[in-house]
Amino acid sequence: MPIETNFIFSANSFQDYLDCPRRFELKYLLKQNWPAEESEPVLEFEHNAELGNRFHRMVHQYLNGVPQEILLASIQDAALHEWFANFHAFYSSRKFVQIFSEFSLRAVINQSPLVAVCDLIALTADGNLWILDWKTSAKKTRRENLNDRIQSILYPFIALECADRIFPDIRLQAENIHMAYLFVQHPADNLLTFDYSPDSHQQNRAFLTATIGEILSKEPGTFECTAEARRCRFCVYRSLCERGITAGNLAELEDASDLQDTLSNLDFDAQEEIAF
Amino acid sequence: MALTYTETQQNVIQLPLDSRAFLEGPAGSGKTSAALARLERILQHVPGHEVLILVPQRSLGKPYYDYVKNNPDYRGSLPSILTLGGLAQRMTNLFWPLVAEQAGFRDPVRLPYFLSLETAQYCMSRIVDPKREQGLFNSVTIEKNRIYSQILDNLNKAAVVGFAIDEIAARLKADLNLEPSLAPALDQAQACALDFRRFCFDYNLMDYSLQIEVFFKHVWPLPHCRKYFETFYPHVFFDNIEEDVPAAHDLMQAWLPECKSALLIMDRQAGYRTFLGADPSNAEALKSVCDRQIIAQDTFKSLTGMVDFQIALTSCIRHEPSAAILPDLNPVLTLKDFHFYPEMLAGVADEIAGMIKNASVQAGEIVILAPYLSDALKFSLEQLLQNRNIHSYSSRPSRMYLDEPAVKCVLAFAKLAHPQWEMTVSHFELRDALMQTLPNLDVIRADLIAQTLYAPSTGLKSFDGVTNPQMQARITFAFGEKLEQIRAWLQTYASKDALPLDIFLSRLFGELLSQKGFGFFDRYEAGAHIAQLINAIKSFRQFLSVVFGMDEISTGIEFIRTVEAGLLPSAFLNRDEAPRDAVLIAPAHAFLMENRAVACQFWLDIGSLGWWERLNQPLTNPYILRRDWQPGTVWSYNQDFNANQEHMQRLVSGLLQRCEKHLYVYSVQTNERGSEQRGPLLQAFQTLRKRVFATQGGKDV
N or C terminus of chain B: which is more exposed, having fewer CB within 10 Å? Predict the structure, then answer.
């Protein structure tokens, strides 16, 4: 089945393609729900993902006007309390004049739609636009790994492409865009910022255009498996691709930080992309 | 190709950006097309996130989803496409910490749990079942699941219409058509509704009715909520307002004077969801908050013949005289009569196969409609079409995946792996499971294995332990090796702590059954069915453990128990997007709620009373639980009869307005249950046939 012309590219689908083209084909083209375990222990992963969800929800509530003291009173989990305190310390140090929380944006490259679901888009008085992403993982991702993640490429690209539609009264340039990740488990030195530039924008456009072109030009059945077989330990399709039997253990990732940093499917904070 | 618009549509599109307009007209008059073009114009001037598109149910939002999804040029933020329920849930979730305590929830610090229809029924069973054991509802002769759903329906009506729960029984007793013996059951239904509401407050549960009540009473008055509306919903599109409930109209009555622009769209002669609380007359009152009204007259979709046919059939339904000369209906209508139900179904499948073979119509342009769609009817039609290589899909989820051999196979292994459940696996179950698991295993050999190596009391025995060499040879060493692998996997599992059922099944599938050499290796369809099962069990586990604190392991047994009681399994299915080139099989109302025209429609068993009368629902009544119901009045037989007549006429008109080429009307002399039915729709067609015969000089339809 060839890819649909209106297929919506997102950070998750791009990252899946970059991680393993075969996974992209199985997941998005064949829409194959393969019910094997992704990683172990499952309940621990679920618990972490649930905590991540609750944190994102609390921040969304806070940013929509629910007072901090009411939210703090509702937290029964010590970890969440600490994460929220770290978030609040960061947020209250910034002076944003306009914010949009849990905000979806759409841009287009050669008629292929791209979508980003941002934790926060925030404008400062001096006309700078921040795209902020909350990370609840225990370990801070290394800058070079985050820099390579598709999210760091796609989100600022879409934000700049859409800026005039969201803020019609302001002329935003590439230099005014900043993509930042806040690691809320850490009280200090917890922000990784990537500044943007016209060159970055051109490079990103070229990269995204080429990747989309590559995907659209592929015939069904020609999407190859990743060469990095250790990724398959954390992929549900491993039996289908004859790449192993048991699911990888999350603890293994402690010793393989390069892998941990880039496995998009194990990101507790990955947003579920919307229907359009 | 650029679209051309009528003058009326142009008027809608070019309305000033700050106008609040009320657009009404019949189906097919291009109202939604005009609204989409208007949306395009609005989006050229305002950010997408400032637009709210409100629809009565998700299927009616599809043109708007498709517009945004398929627009090759659109960039920016995205509009919100929501139902009233979705909006209420979004707002309540967001502002929960501000309202939970004052709304009356026992543990306001905990998050709310939003119930689906199925989980609400599960919770209602916990209220109703103990009362039934005490003898309550004895006079009600319907399935217990329908008791749950009717009590929930009463709660929902109270919320969307706006009356107190403790008025339910008094209102329903005004129905003179009700058996006097049912009166106590109405009081019991009301008592259960009140108990259910307390249960929700105790466990932080939000069923649909409570979502609506909490939203209107506590969330909507918050300044935070108003600010949210000002930021995100200053521009409103509200389509098919006649299909929405009074509460949705109330919200718009309150919001429209404050918003920047609005386009309200009403389909005249519709109101197909009245049994769900839709209130077209209440919708019409929204004209008062609009600054202009536009009437769309023209229709694009219908053939002249179809319009004439609709007029002729309507006059037969109403028992009114028709035009002196009736047109030739053969180009638009085929009537067929069959002896038995299966013959009729085969006739439908053959007709469709012929149409597709001749390339006269594509599968996606055909719908098969019945008043209700039982699992048996759906399954039979799907099989008949599949045998003719025709894809089909249904408008509603089904429990059928539970009957899939792959699903039965993994559940059999789950029982084998958990002897402590004391759920026996029969020889037949094991035989079928092994045939799924071991490629090329024939039924004789599978039966031999089940008889030789399995006993319910001891489980699966070792192939290596078989002392009879001839028996080993008959089973074959190749299969014996696989059996040993299965045993080893089960033994390893048994040596560790038990897992929740969904995790067990995932592991069984991933580590064993989908590995090369086993039956589910590269079997996509089997994988998809098992995935459905696992998702359902997982969601149910999370629901029970979060809400009731049940331990994760016990939730698996509770899932199986609940499924066997006929509740649940469709609750947690993902509703995939409809396939493009497949025949739709649907209840007639569900098709109307897709609000799209097709080339051909098949109406099944038109003698069925289901085309005319509403479902037997002794514990509820959509007409009495309306906003315009006057307390103290009664609901008589004549009113019920007239309501049925009006309902059928509206249904028939709605369907014909969405039929572009040809209608196939099939009747059957002996229906599904073996009885003969000559309902009013069949009678109307017989009248029509006589009239055509008389005016066409002996030419029949």
Answer: N
